[in-house]
Amino acid sequence: MSRRIRTLMAALCALPLAFAAAPSAHAADPTTMTNGFYVDPDSSARRWAAANPGDGRAAAINASIANTPMARWFGSWSGTIGTATGAYVGAADYRDKLPVLVAYNIYHRDYCGGHSAGGAASPYAYADWIAQFAGGIAARPAVVILEPDSLGDYGCMTQAQIDEREAMLTGALAEFNRQAPNTWVYMDAGNPRWADAATMARRLHEAGLRQAHGFSLNVSNYITTAENTAYGNAVNNELAARYGYTKPFVVDTSRNGNGSNGQWCNPSGRRIGTPTRTGGGAEMLLWIKTPGESDGNCGVGAGSTAGQFLPEVAYKMIYGY
């Protein structure tokens, strides 16, 4: 398939010029192999809008959320994972678009928070799952957010569990490097409210950041792009000082239009943020969490489960009330 080539000079603004960025694990740049980001045709927002055309909220949800490029999350619910990722990136490749995928199945997932607990049955099961995930993508262009929350909260974990988790992430990066040469992988680095920059830099490095393209911030959270950008730059300062390299980062802007009120689980009064694009102080601003999907049985999503689409929450998030 022929592809239109475009450069992304704005990405250079993501890192202070004094830093020497570590070489990417991949030579290829998937953003120059595609023409824009992929809109998931089967997102929860799209499915709801299609199933409820007579609902007074449907037009706004369809226009402001369902037709915006955003990530698709993959986990135990995805069936045979290599088939699932292969079908998704294949559909995007057919349209010459760049898909964003989230790998969310690590053993002891959300171990300390609990709202999204689950994941693979063992570290060995996870290694097999993530190998199939990467194999399904193969040589097609993609962006992968690797295991949100995995490095953000170690508060309830023993050192042995931390070591085990970091080994799983390092192994995952090795699989992407081996099988998916045109994929940019971003290790998740939580958000500015979870760990200070020095702590996060150490966790990222120990989990194999050198093998990744970069790191992700604010996934499923509400903190402003400016605060995340400052934090990302601070993490890079620590990486440069301690380990001699820096990495680009991306920010989840799907729900940070009004910033954070200090709550992370379905807070009221939040708003959708800047649609997916390049630049803005980070390498890319992405919609990683679907606006309107619940964080769990909490806040304005009381009675819901994590990932459930709540149309009233989505509708209010469009307007910020």
TrEMBL record:
Its EC number is 3.2.1.-. Gene3D superfamilies: 1, 4-beta cellobiohydrolase (3.20.20.40). The keyword Transcription does not apply. Residues 1-27 form the signal peptide. It holds the Pfam family Glyco_hydro_6. The active site is at D149. The keyword Secreted does not apply. One of its GO terms (molecular function) is hydrolase activity. InterPro entries: Beta_cellobiohydrolase (IPR016288), Beta_cellobiohydrolase_sf (IPR036434), Glyco_hydro_6_CS (IPR001524). Keywords: Carbohydrate metabolism, Cellulose degradation, Disulfide bond, Glycosidase, Hydrolase, Polysaccharide degradation, Signal. Belongs to the glycosyl hydrolase family 6. This is Glucanase. It comes from Streptomyces atrovirens.
